[in-house]
Amino acid sequence: DMPRRVVVFYGTNRVPTTKPAYFSADEALAVSYGYVRVNLPPHRKRGELKSKPNTSERNPPDAQKYMFLVDSTQVTPEAFVALVNRAFQVDGRKRIGFIFVHGYNSSFEDAALRTAQLSADMGLPVVPAFFTWPASGEDYTGTFEYLRDFTKAISAIPALEAFLTQFAEKSQAEELFVLAHSMGTWT
Question: How confident is the model at residue 91 (pLDDT cuts 50, 70, 90)?
Answer without folding.
Answer: confident
